[in-house]
Recover the amino acids of this structure.
């Protein structure tokens, strides 16, 4: 399940649980038969609701609120978070929101990183990759997993599981650049209707600056040049200036939407 679908699923379930318990006065944990899966914990109060997804070494928080927190809800939310040593949350916005940042700070979160969304209209342009690029095969999956885990940070990057990756490979949604049989870089994409989303692109440290990343992007755009895809989009870490320059060179433009990642490690100081 991709990031957007995951959030939609979570939002739908949170609304369902919220209205099922409209009069509760403290956050409660839903019973096991009400979980999205065994690694998700839901907490509901009178207005806000909180979902914690168990990840490898941390919890990811999804937080929904319709109005200002009451003192009771505020204390309840803090007491829930105090039970977890590392919680990561994200906030997607088109404008800087000092109120939201203040909320995260008061709950003990600090700024971890941010991603800029970039998009481009499909003009049918064909490119000439300087490196050989092909679709990844099943026998390449171990190399892909090793590269993704080496380059990406699970706290802020959605790294596909082996099962997800196998599905993506079968769907011809993973491109790889190779030096003989060694994987140098990989690009994962997902097509949805008339839109195509680059879920992740990375190059092994020893092959960076040699054109592998650009070749992957070139081939990705070539694959879709004459397709029904009308819009390309991706997210880029705001600190990765080289990647952002490459996307600009290809025609991508920032659309002012930013994904802020916050982290809370241990109990906040009183």
């Amino acid at each position: 399940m991709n990031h957007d679908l995951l959030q939609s699923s979570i939002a739908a379930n949170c609304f369902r649980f919220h209205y099922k318990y409209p009069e509760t006065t403290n956050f409660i944990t839903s019973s096991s038969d009400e979980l999205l899966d065994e690694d998700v914990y839901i907490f509901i109060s009178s207005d806000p609701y909180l979902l914690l997804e168990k990840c490898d070494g941390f919890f990811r928080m999804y937080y929904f609120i319709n109005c200002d927190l009451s003192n009771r809800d505020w204390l309840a939310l803090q007491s829930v978070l105090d039970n977890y040593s590392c919680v990561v949350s994200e906030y997607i916005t088109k404008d800087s929101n000092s109120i939201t940042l203040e909320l995260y700070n008061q709950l003990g979160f600090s700024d971890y990183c941010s991603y800029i969304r970039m998009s481009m209209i499909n003009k049918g342009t064909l490119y000439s990759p300087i490196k050989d690029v092909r679709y990844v095969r099943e026998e390449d999956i171990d190399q892909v997993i090793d590269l993704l885990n080496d380059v990406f940070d699970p706290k802020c990057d959605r790294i596909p599981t082996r099962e997800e990756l196998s599905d993506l490979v079968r769907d011809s949604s993973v491109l790889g650049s190779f030096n003989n049989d060694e994987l140098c870089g990989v690009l994962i994409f997902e097509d949805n209707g008339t839109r195509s989303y680059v879920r992740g692109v990375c190059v092994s440290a020893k092959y960076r600056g040699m054109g592998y990343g650009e070749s992957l992007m070139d081939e990705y755009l070539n694959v879709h040049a004459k397709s029904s895809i009308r819009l390309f989009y991706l997210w880029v870490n705001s600190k990765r200036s080289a990647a952002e320059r490459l996307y600009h060179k290809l025609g991508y433009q920032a659309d002012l939407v930013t994904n802020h990642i916050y982290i809370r490690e241990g109990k906040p100081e009183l």
Remarks:
- The chain has two domains: 3-113+260-265, 119-258.
- Confidence is low (pLDDT under 50) at residues 1-12, 14-37.
- The longest helix spans residues 3-20.
